[in-house]
């Protein structure tokens, strides 16, 4: 979902991470109030880890491309 928001909708990386993390909180809160679902902190933590991994990988790719383009200009 993070990739979709960032790549297809062209949202900035930081805004995407915040939005998806907030969505994860809302999902767990919704599950807490449903009788047939249970909210789990571990599920939310795994959501955050996945979001953070995407953010780190995407940021690394952007920095690598930026460095490569700067070397080509010199």
Describe the structure.
The chain crosses the membrane at residues 12-32, 44-64. Keywords: Membrane, Transmembrane, Transmembrane helix. This is VanZ-like domain-containing protein. Helix content is 82%, strand content 0%. With 74 residues, the chain is an all-alpha fold. 8% of the residues are buried. The mean pLDDT is 86. Helix 2 (13-33) runs antiparallel to helix 3. The chain has helices at residues 2-8, 13-33, 41-73.
Rg to the nearest angstrom? 16 Å
- Give the H and E element order: HHH
Overall pLDDT: 86
User: Helical segment tally?
Assistant: 3
Please bin the fraction of helical residues.
over 70%
Q: Runs with pLDDT <50, length 5+?
A: none
In what range is the share of β-strand residues? under 5%
How many individual domains?
1
Sum up the overall morphology in one term: elongated
Gist of the model:
This protein is mostly helical. It has helices at 2-8, 13-33, 41-73. It has one domain.
What are the defining features of this structure?
single chain; 74 residues; mainly alpha; 82% helix; elongated; membrane; VanZ-like domain-containing protein; transmembrane helix
């Amino acid at each position: 979902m993070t990739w979709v928001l960032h790549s297809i909708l062209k949202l900035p990386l930081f805004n995407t991470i915040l939005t998806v993390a907030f969505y994860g909180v809302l999902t767990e809160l919704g599950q807490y109030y449903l009788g047939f679902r249970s909210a789990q902190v571990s599920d939310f933590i795994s959501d955050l880890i996945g979001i953070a991994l995407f953010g780190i990988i995407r940021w690394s790719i952007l920095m690598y491309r930026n460095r490569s383009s700067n070397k080509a200009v010199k």
